[in-house]
Write a structure and sequence with these properties.
Blueprint (H helix, E strand, L loop, with lengths): L1 H45 L1 E2 L8 E3 L8 E5 L10 E5 L8 E3 L8 E2 L6 H12 L2
Antiparallel strand pairs: 1-6, 2-5, 3-4
Protein backbone atom coordinates (compact mmCIF):
# COMPACT_ATOMS: atom_id res chain seq x y z
CA UNK A 1 0.00 0.00 0.00
CA UNK A 2 2.81 2.41 0.90
CA UNK A 3 4.61 1.54 -2.32
CA UNK A 4 1.50 2.32 -4.38
CA UNK A 5 1.10 5.66 -2.63
CA UNK A 6 4.76 6.40 -3.25
CA UNK A 7 4.35 5.50 -6.94
CA UNK A 8 1.35 7.80 -7.30
CA UNK A 9 3.28 10.61 -5.61
CA UNK A 10 6.19 10.14 -8.01
CA UNK A 11 3.86 10.18 -11.02
CA UNK A 12 2.14 13.32 -9.72
CA UNK A 13 5.51 15.00 -9.08
CA UNK A 14 6.72 14.01 -12.53
CA UNK A 15 3.54 15.32 -14.11
CA UNK A 16 3.87 18.57 -12.21
CA UNK A 17 7.48 18.95 -13.31
CA UNK A 18 6.49 18.23 -16.89
CA UNK A 19 3.71 20.83 -16.82
CA UNK A 20 5.87 23.46 -15.12
CA UNK A 21 8.78 22.75 -17.47
CA UNK A 22 6.52 23.00 -20.51
CA UNK A 23 4.99 26.24 -19.26
CA UNK A 24 8.43 27.70 -18.57
CA UNK A 25 9.60 26.70 -22.02
CA UNK A 26 6.50 28.27 -23.60
CA UNK A 27 6.94 31.55 -21.73
CA UNK A 28 10.64 31.63 -22.62
CA UNK A 29 9.86 31.04 -26.30
CA UNK A 30 7.35 33.89 -26.37
CA UNK A 31 9.74 36.24 -24.53
CA UNK A 32 12.63 35.43 -26.89
CA UNK A 33 10.42 35.90 -29.95
CA UNK A 34 9.20 39.29 -28.74
CA UNK A 35 12.76 40.33 -27.90
CA UNK A 36 14.04 39.30 -31.33
CA UNK A 37 11.28 41.27 -33.08
CA UNK A 38 11.97 44.40 -31.00
CA UNK A 39 15.73 44.18 -31.61
CA UNK A 40 15.22 43.73 -35.37
CA UNK A 41 12.86 46.71 -35.52
CA UNK A 42 15.35 48.91 -33.64
CA UNK A 43 18.15 47.74 -35.91
CA UNK A 44 16.12 48.60 -39.03
CA UNK A 45 15.58 52.13 -37.72
CA UNK A 46 19.35 52.67 -37.53
CA UNK A 47 20.27 51.25 -40.95
CA UNK A 48 21.74 53.58 -43.56
CA UNK A 49 22.20 53.16 -47.31
CA UNK A 50 25.29 51.16 -48.26
CA UNK A 51 27.96 53.51 -49.64
CA UNK A 52 29.53 50.79 -51.82
CA UNK A 53 26.48 49.79 -53.90
CA UNK A 54 24.50 52.99 -53.15
CA UNK A 55 21.57 50.90 -51.98
CA UNK A 56 21.19 48.77 -55.10
CA UNK A 57 22.44 45.67 -53.23
CA UNK A 58 24.34 44.54 -56.35
CA UNK A 59 27.61 45.38 -58.05
CA UNK A 60 28.79 44.74 -61.57
CA UNK A 61 30.74 41.48 -61.77
CA UNK A 62 34.45 42.14 -61.33
CA UNK A 63 35.45 39.23 -63.58
CA UNK A 64 33.31 39.84 -66.69
CA UNK A 65 32.65 43.57 -66.08
CA UNK A 66 28.91 42.92 -66.33
CA UNK A 67 29.14 41.36 -69.83
CA UNK A 68 27.93 37.98 -68.52
CA UNK A 69 30.36 36.02 -70.68
CA UNK A 70 34.10 35.55 -71.00
CA UNK A 71 36.08 35.21 -74.21
CA UNK A 72 38.66 32.49 -74.42
CA UNK A 73 41.05 31.16 -77.05
CA UNK A 74 42.17 27.64 -77.66
CA UNK A 75 45.93 27.45 -77.07
CA UNK A 76 46.36 24.70 -79.67
CA UNK A 77 45.61 26.99 -82.60
CA UNK A 78 47.80 29.74 -84.00
CA UNK A 79 46.82 33.29 -82.93
CA UNK A 80 46.03 34.35 -86.51
CA UNK A 81 43.47 31.63 -87.14
CA UNK A 82 42.36 31.50 -83.56
CA UNK A 83 38.66 31.20 -82.99
CA UNK A 84 37.24 33.21 -80.10
CA UNK A 85 34.79 31.28 -77.98
CA UNK A 86 32.55 32.57 -75.23
CA UNK A 87 31.48 30.95 -72.01
CA UNK A 88 29.26 32.06 -69.15
CA UNK A 89 31.16 33.90 -66.45
CA UNK A 90 31.99 31.44 -63.66
CA UNK A 91 31.94 34.16 -60.98
CA UNK A 92 28.45 35.61 -61.54
CA UNK A 93 27.12 32.54 -63.40
CA UNK A 94 26.09 34.71 -66.33
CA UNK A 95 24.06 37.21 -64.28
CA UNK A 96 26.44 40.12 -64.88
CA UNK A 97 26.22 41.26 -61.28
CA UNK A 98 27.01 40.04 -57.80
CA UNK A 99 25.59 40.75 -54.37
CA UNK A 100 27.40 43.57 -52.61
CA UNK A 101 29.76 42.11 -50.01
CA UNK A 102 29.62 45.21 -47.82
CA UNK A 103 25.85 45.00 -47.17
CA UNK A 104 25.50 41.29 -48.10
CA UNK A 105 22.94 42.12 -50.77
CA UNK A 106 20.63 44.05 -48.44
CA UNK A 107 21.37 47.59 -49.65
CA UNK A 108 21.49 48.84 -46.05
CA UNK A 109 24.21 48.70 -43.39
CA UNK A 110 24.66 49.65 -39.76
CA UNK A 111 26.57 52.94 -39.51
CA UNK A 112 29.98 52.95 -37.91
CA UNK A 113 29.92 54.18 -34.32
CA UNK A 114 31.98 57.30 -35.10
CA UNK A 115 30.94 60.64 -33.67
CA UNK A 116 31.82 64.12 -34.85
CA UNK A 117 34.13 64.56 -31.86
CA UNK A 118 36.02 61.39 -32.91
CA UNK A 119 36.54 62.84 -36.38
CA UNK A 120 37.68 66.21 -35.02
CA UNK A 121 40.09 64.50 -32.62
CA UNK A 122 41.55 62.46 -35.49
CA UNK A 123 41.89 65.57 -37.64
CA UNK A 124 43.60 67.45 -34.79
CA UNK A 125 46.07 64.56 -34.29
CA UNK A 126 46.76 64.44 -38.03
CA UNK A 127 47.56 68.15 -38.28
CA UNK A 128 49.81 68.14 -35.23
CA UNK A 129 52.54 66.31 -37.19
Amino acid sequence: MAQAAMGRAMVAAGGTMLVLGGATMGVSFVAMTVTRVVVEQNKKKKLVTCHICTGSAKLSCAVCDGERTLKYHSKKQAPVNQRISRTACPMCEGAGSQACLNCLGEGKVMPLPITLSDLLETQKDYHSF
